[in-house]
Write a structure and sequence with these properties.
CATH class of the largest domain: Alpha Beta
Number of domains: 2
CATH superfamily of the largest domain: Leucine Dehydrogenase, chain A, domain 1
Order of helices and strands: HHHHH
Helix content: 40-55%
Largest sheet: none
Number of strands: 0
Distance between the termini: 25 Å
Oligomer: single chain
Number of helices: 5
CATH architecture of the largest domain: 3-Layer(aba) Sandwich
Radius of gyration: 18 Å
Structural class: mainly alpha
């Protein structure tokens, strides 16, 4: 859920995200496709629960061909709202102890499956004196 400036921006993002999910599922060896969705709305709006309920009814109508979960603008408490009308929801707050953040496991899973991918950021590069190991190539942030 994000307040995209245009529908084209939302479409570009959802296609990029679905491509990433396709790769992620393939790398993990999961028998899942790369479906993704976006809700074009500000997640701080007062009627967010109503939007989530409407969305969840559409997901339910797909009969399990698509599962939804938390992501930008939709957290575990929101997933509990989605689950009121939908059986196909991952990462509900009610599944975890209070304060638990399941999104941290996304990063951990990627690093465990692809051991070399995080190495430049996790291991120091002693030859260049960089704590990040990027040899100073990236100057715009971590």
């Amino acid at each position: 859920m994000y307040p995209y400036a245009t529908i084209d921006d939302a479409l570009t993002d959802v296609l990029r995200l679905s491509k990433g999910m396709t790769y992620k599922n393939a790398i993990a060896g999961l028998p899942l496709g790369g479906g993704k969705c976006v809700i074009v709305a500000d997640p701080s709006r007062a009627d967010k629960p109503d939007l989530l309920r409407a969305f969840s009814r559409h997901v339910q109508a797909l009969g399990g061909r698509y599962w939804t979960a938390i992501d930008v603008g939709v957290g575990p408490a929101d997933a509990d709202i989605l689950a009121e009308n939908c059986d196909f929801v991952f990462a509900r707050a009610s599944q975890y102890p209070d304060g638990f953040n399941p999104s941290l496991f996304t990063a951990l899973g990627w690093l465990r499956r692809r051991p070399g991918c995080g190495r430049p950021y996790l291991e120091p590069d002693r030859s260049q004196g960089s704590a990040r190991g990027d040899r100073g190539a990236r100057r715009d942030g971590p």
